Amino acid sequence: MRYLLVGGNGLLGRDIAEALAGRDVDAPRRAELDITDADAVRSAVTGHDVVINSAAYTKVDAAEHEQAEAEAVNALGPELLAAAAHAEGARFVQISTDYVFRGDARSPYDEAEPVDPLGAYGRTKAEGERRASEASDGELHIVRTAWLYGAHGDNFARTIARKAAAGEPLRVVTDQVGQPTWSRDVAGRIVDMLDLELPAGIYHATNSGQASWYDFARAIVTSIGGDPDIVGSTDSSSFVREAERPVYSVLGHDGWTSTPLPPLRDWREALAAATAAGVLESR
């Protein structure tokens, strides 16, 4: 099997690359593959059995005024990759996000729930799902994840751990709820999904349970041996941002019910394992 991993230098992409260690993997950098160039995409996909697209424009606020750039990466890119993979007879995995939902639900979002994004980032990711699905005649895996943290790059968990260790003040919102998710768990699940040849469809890959950002921050500080009471509470009105965030980003996991794979473990268990693995340590 030959794998093409697009976006392999990102937070999740680097964990996917590690989960595929020892296999035949090509992971071109952004400068080496323009996913908005149809000819370049067809050339890159040729000869591969699996294509995983973890590349994305993820600047949520900037997307509000850089919508053309966000759409190119988040919608056109997946469409071209999916079309090329379909023509090649390769399996295609598109990584997506909780931001395709409005975030006003009161129970976890089912995989089949109609998308209804709030802002430009979510709209372009939802459009990427739609266009990739059409380009592949529905023969693809869409893996939605959320609230990712991991060993690579800046992310909420590492930022909180660093600030707590430095004694910096922490004020974190209590009115946004989601599922803190270790990127290594998602990466492993994607590889397992491919190895078991699960049916095409939408799968939600988030750690189980739910928490507010405030809850998550307190758990992070506790996990590194700090006093969780250093984390102060606030709400979203304290932060002026260009793009509105979903208030409720909890994803349901019924998509795994008919497969040999269970939902991902509870977020607290994952955080403990990530801490033991050194994910929160300064580098």
Describe the structure.
- The protein has 283 residues and is α/β, with parallel strands linked by helices.
- It has a domain at 2-155 and 180-207: 3-Layer(aba) Sandwich (Rossmann fold).
- The chain is 35% helix and 16% strand.
- It contains eight helices and twelve strands.
- The protein has helices at 11-19, 38-45, 67-88, 120-135, 156-165, 183-195, 213-223, 267-276, and strands spanning 2-6, 24-26, 50-53, 91-97, 141-145, 148-149, 170-173, 177-178, 181-182, 201-204, 211-212, 231-234.
- It has a six-stranded parallel sheet with strand order 2-1-3-4-5-10, with helices on both faces.
- Helix 1 (11-19) links the parallel strand 1 and strand 2 (24-26).
- Helix 1 crosses helix 6 (183-195) and helix 5 packs across helix 7.
- The longest helix has 22 residues, at 67-88.
Quote the distance from N terminus to C terminus: 34 Å
How many beta-strand elements?
12
Major sheet description? 6 strands, parallel
Named CATH topology of the domain at 2-155 and 180-207:
Rossmann fold
Proportion of strand residues: 15-25%
**Poorly predicted regions:** none
Name the shape in a single word: globular
The helix tally amounts to 8
Percent range for helical residues? 25-40%
Q: Which architecture of the domain at 2-155 and 180-207 would the CATH scheme give at its second level?
A: 3-Layer(aba) Sandwich
Order of helices and strands: EHEHEHEHEEHEEEHEEHEH
The strand order across the widest sheet is 2-1-3-4-5-10
- The secondary structure category is alpha/beta
Looking at CATH, the homologous superfamily of the domain at 2-155 and 180-207 is NAD(P)-binding Rossmann-like Domain
| Name of the CATH first level of the domain at 2-155 and 180-207 | Alpha Beta
Give average pLDDT, whole number: 96
